[in-house]
Design a protein that fits this description.
Strand content of chain A: 15-25%
Radius of gyration of chain A: 26 Å
Distance between the termini of chain A: 29 Å
Structural class of chain B: alpha+beta
Distance between the termini of chain B: 33 Å
Number of helices of chain A: 16
Strand order of the largest sheet of chain A: 2-3-1-4-10-9-5-8
Strand order of the largest sheet of chain B: 1-2-3-4
Mean pLDDT of chain B: 92
Largest interface: A-B, 43 and 38 residues
Radius of gyration of chain B: 15 Å
Oligomer: heterodimer
Shape of chain B: globular
Largest sheet of chain B: 4 strands, antiparallel
Number of strands of chain A: 19
Chain lengths: 485, 125
């Protein structure tokens, strides 16, 4: 059945991806879910209004207002404002009235019976309308049988049984940058589910105890968890855990979490006994991570026969722009500047091993290898990948792996020069011995060509180098697709 | 550090036959109660190396785990409770994990194991 989905006007490329991931989660489908989408007449593809075909009202309600078995905040698709069963739409109130009249009675009377309470909300995308103006529009809805003698619902503004919504797309204004709607469009419908973005305020980074320079903001952490189809009882791993910001998002949705980082100060000490990863979890009353450890993702400490442990791997790998990645092995050692040496016995305890820079290419290779081995079949890998924004270069190619199928790619523009893309991949093929030996060979190749990878993969200089003199406009995307859109 | 973690870790120093399971040197342990999730336990049961778990639990002072197990035992609440306790409620706060072949110690401080290898423990070629 078709429903009207109203999105928030932000993170545009993430919206349908999140919606489809949640639909898949509800239906128990771990692979990519492709729903049918349709734009209302005269609407721009970036508009917040989209019709979507869902198998049932339960699916719609789950996505908009997730039902969970254990007690926690009713969670919502973070970018979905509301989902409505549309009773009628039109370019004017006359057209709307006609449409609602012919909408099947059985669908209407269910929600208008005596003994039920209702409320009507008036929404105008892009501008706020005053209370008298809202009332005026509600009056125009007299044709809806809210007060037919036999079917008398009562108004309850605070906690109604049913919520109806009148959505009026008269004039967006030009503040949000979308081209103006060529025609007015009015929708009237019953709310099936609506969002509750209160959790964003609860978890906002501003009030978080322990932060690092690349801590993931709350909204994005929740989005990543939704892309990974996190739910209670699942085990989620972050190999670059840092301050735990991504795990917090997953833990809120009931997952068991595990994290590792090569920097022991971040993972073990934090900034003190009340300011570390654990205190972050304590701050929100979330269960502690199952496991935190210091480990190098390039040389992971897992036993050889361990595999298919994690339901999801969610992370933001270091791409060397704001935080450089590190791996084991002294820098000079790998460069060949120094011969292999042995750490003298008396210096072993408390020896801090040298680490070397970790190029993005090798980092992603190791991440894919880890995920391919350690994810269950149908498990998801969700991670950010940096992309230079350059009109001349062809569409970016994203990392591939024989065990994985790509489900979604969602770009978020970060600056004039570069974006990050959230990649969602599903494990569809088992990790074979052949794949393992190929990975091992690649690992040794990286060692031999250590310097080469560092130079080629240097994103930092590309991002921070002085601007080109040509001064050509880089952006081929419309202006409103800024940092948070 | 919980025993679930210990059960996943091995010493990956170059040239070893097997770095699993790691021995445990205990300096300080703690018991912290945590809510039980039966589904999670059942999933973990299939992944866990049972003998290593039993031995590790004994080192931390818990001897209630049976030596031999089979999947039907998961139906017993009593077994689940013991499994849950050993896997998730026993913590090694301070001590070390010991490589079974070389004796090299991986320190555990504030419950976090440090599994980073020294420069001479890594295979360079």
């Amino acid at each position: 059945m078709w429903y009207l989905c109203v999105f928030y006007h932000r993170l545009l490329e993430y919206r349908k991806a999140e919606f489809e991931s949640l639909a898949g989660l509800f239906e128990g489908c771990s692979g990519a879910t492709h729903l049918q989408w349709r734009l209302p007449e005269d609407h721009h593809p970036d508009s917040p209004f989209h019709f979507v075909n869902l198998p049932s009202e339960e699916t719609a309600r789950f996505i908009a207002n997730r039902m969970v078995v254990i007690e926690m905040d009713a969670f919502v698709g973070i970018l979905v404002k509301g989902i409505y069963e549309i009773w009628g739409e039109g370019r004017s109130f006359e057209e709307l009235e006609e449409a609602v009249r012919i909408y099947p009675d059985e669908r209407k009377t269910l929600y208008l019976s005596s003994g039920t309470t209702f409320r009507i909300t008036v929404e105008c995308f892009g501008k706020a309308i005053s209370f008298p103006e809202q009332n005026e529009r509600i009056q125009k809805l007299a044709f809806v049988p809210f007060q037919v003698p036999l079917l008398q619902g009562r108004v309850n503004l605070r906690n109604p049984d049913h919520n109806f919504c009148l959505i009026d797309n008269d004039d967006y204004g030009d503040k949000n940058g979308l081209p103006p709607a060529s025609q007015r469009r009015i929708f009237f419908g019953r709310e099936v589910g609506a969002s509750n973005r209160k959790i964003l305020q609860t978890y906002q980074l501003k009030s978080r105890k322990y932060l690092g320079p690349t801590a993931m903001d709350a909204e994005m952490a929740f989005l990543m968890a939704n892309q990974a189809q996190v739910k209670p009882g699942k085990l989620v791993y972050d190999p670059f855990v840092g301050t735990g910001s991504i795990l917090i998002g997953a833990a809120h949705f009931g997952a068991m979490t595990m994290g590792a980082d090569i920097d022991i100060r971040v993972v073990r000490d934090g900034r003190g006994p009340d300011c570390n990863i654990r205190s972050n979890f304590k701050q929100y009353g979330l269960p502690m991570p199952v496991s935190l450890l210091r480990a190098d993702n390039n040389l992971p400490p897992w036993r050889a026969d361990l595999k298919e442990m994690f339901d999801a791997v969610i992370c933001d790998p270091p791409y060397g722009v704001r935080a450089g990645g590190r791996k084991s092995g002294g820098r000079k050692l790998l460069k060949g500047a120094v011969d292999p040496y042995t750490v003298p016995d008396d210096k072993r305890v408390g020896h801090i091993p040298s680490t070397a820079p970790y190029s993005l290419v090798e980092c992603v290779h190791d991440l894919l290898d880890l995920a391919a081995k350690m994810l269950v079949m149908g498990g998801r890998l969700v991670y950010f990948y940096p992309v230079m924004r350059d009109e001349d270069s062809p569409d970016p190619t994203f990392p591939e792996h024989p065990c994985f199928e790509s489900v979604a790619t969602c770009e978020q523009i970060l600056s004039f020069r570069y974006s990050r893309v959230l990649l969602t991949m599903v494990k569809v093929a088992p990790y074979t011995e052949e794949i393992e030996s190929t990975a091992r060979l690649r690992h040794l190749e990286f060692k031999e060509n250590h310097l080469k990878w560092l130079e080629d993969g240097n994103l930092h200089s590309a991002v921070f180098s002085p601007a080109d003199v040509t001064g050509e406009k880089l952006s081929s995307k419309p202006k409103y697709r800024g940092k948070y859109v | 550090m919980r025993l679930l973690t210990h059960n996943m870790l091995s010493s990956n120093i170059k040239g070893l036959t097997s770095g699993f399971p790691l021995g445990i040197e205990v300096e300080k342990t703690e018991e912290k109660e945590v809510e039980m999730n039966a589904d999670f336990l059942r999933n973990m049961f299939a992944k866990v190396e049972w003998k290593a778990l039993v031995e590790a639990a004994k080192t931390l002072g818990y001897t209630e785990l049976p030596d031999n197990v089979e999947p039907s035992m998961l139906d017993s609440d009593e077994f689940l409770r013991r499994f849950h306790h050993a896997l998730l409620e026993l913590h090694l706060e301070e001590g070390a994990l010991v490589c079974p072949e070389t004796g090299r110690k991986f320190p555990v401080n504030k419950g976090i194991p440090n599994m980073l290898l020294h420069e001479d423990e890594i295979l360079l070629q």
